[in-house]
Amino acid sequence: MEEEVAVVHTEPSTGRHRGNERYSDDWEERQQRQEKEKDTVKFSEFGGGTDDFNNVANKKLICDTSFGKYDVCELEGDARAQGGAGATVTVVSPRAAPREWKIKPYSRKYLDGLKAVTVRSVPNAEDAPPCTTRLNIPAMVIELGGLTGNYWHDFTDVLVPLFIGARRFSGEVQLLVVNLLPFWVDKYRKIFSQLSRHEIIDLEKDHGVVRCYPHVVVGYGSRKEFTIDPSLDDTGGGYTMVNFTEFLRHSYSLPRDRPIKLNHHQGSRPRMMILERTNSRKFMNLPEVVAAAEAAGFEVSVAGRPKASYDEFVREVNSFDVMLGVHGAGLTNCLFLPTGAVLVQIVPYGRLESIARTDFGEPARDMGLRYIEYAVAAEESSLTDVFGKDHPIIKDPISVHMSGWGNVAEWYLGKQDVRINIDRFRPVLMQVLEHLH
Predict the structure, then answer these.
(1) Beta-bridge mates of residue 212
(2) Hey, which of 5, 211, 338, 395 has its CA 20 to 30 A from 59?
(3) Compositional bias of type Basic and acidic residues: which residue ranges (predicted)?
(4) pLDDT of 396-429, one tens digit each?
(5) How far is it, in rounded angstroms, from Cα 54 to Cα 77?
(6) pLDDT at position 20, please?
């Protein structure tokens, strides 16, 4: 949950800052993203849609740029990756006409600051750079720019898509990375080590080397946010979000696959982790929330700034049966709960339920978690204290949404705290206990 407490994260590719104080920017970006992703067919700068990119001889697709969110190229046969400032991947296709694509190998290709890799198809080996090293395994070319560094985006944009693309190779794949971030890879080293048993190559610094493989994939992505829809899995692996959370538990050697079952453990108290935010969307009456949960029968721990390493923290998360928190990136940690555990998302006031369900509600169910949503009422919002009940921000949230995401992000996400009505909240606690029986 580092995104919840970090002061500033920097987008390496653009130099812009992303921390909790800039969390609202994600919502403007998401609205723009949704508009861009409405177009189901995109055209490369070389002209033509997906049909035009088919290998004329065998009708095998080389680069698919048809989806508005990301591009993927599958190069099979004699594929050669040449690093440096302008990285190039060339595949020798004897019966195909020469072609060239500019591919941004990141899961949101429309973002500013991304770097393109040139993908070429040539008919003769003499037209490709000569190999200096050869491995008889596949390779994947990916980028770590974009929104990498925001905790939710770390998984939504990189780690989940990378799992979808690389897991089919069972560790026998080499990652060729554009905009490699060593500190970031080190944070998630246990995940990377399970996806690939081979050295990670900084493609931009790989000067004078031509690496040759029988199969190279350029690009990666996921059709849905923070989850996997196996029916839309381009790789044909059929993976689900339950598979991904099982993979995470294996990667970090987490001991618990299932939460406590109260009907089998008479007298036991289920463990609840409450996520404490430090900027916007804070609990204004956190001690009362803790006391109510304890009175209902839970053993409660409040998680603020992690004092342990990331590996130790995810192990701690796995020890809980319930996670409760206000909507925000910290809820990403539900990935490490045992299957069947309960996630309680507190949705701030302002008609944010749809966003909350897309970002965490639907993914939680896909992970096999029990999901409960508590929507904050106007009288529980700090905005009522600021504006009064007759102000449009309180009286008419729809009009605020209609005015643009900037106002939604600024007030409902960026400048709102919550004071939970304990009497109204108690039935939620009872519902959690029912799920654990």
Answers:
(1) 80, 134
(2) 211
(3) 18-39
(4) 999 999 999 999 999 999 999 999 999 999 999 9
(5) 16
(6) 36
Taking 3-state DSSP, the helix, strand and coil percentages for the chain, each rounded to the nearest 5, stand at 35, 20, 45
Residue 213: which H helix or E strand, with range? strand 210-218
For the entire predicted model, the pTM comes to 0.86
How many CB atoms neighbour CB 7 within 10 A? 10
221 DSSP 8-state letter = -
**The residue to which tokens 């009064």 are assigned:** 388
If residue 343 lies in a helix (H) or strand (E), which one and from where to where? Answer: strand 342-347
Report in angstroms the alpha-carbon separations of 328 from 6, 184, 193: 13, 21, 28
CA distances from 158 to 55, 219, 305 (A): 29, 11, 24
Residue 67: CB atoms within 10 Å: 19
Phi-psi region of 219 (alpha: psi -120 to 50; beta: other; left: phi over 0): left
Q: What are residue 204's phi and psi, to 5 degrees? A: -70, -20
Cβ count within 10 A of residue 41? 11
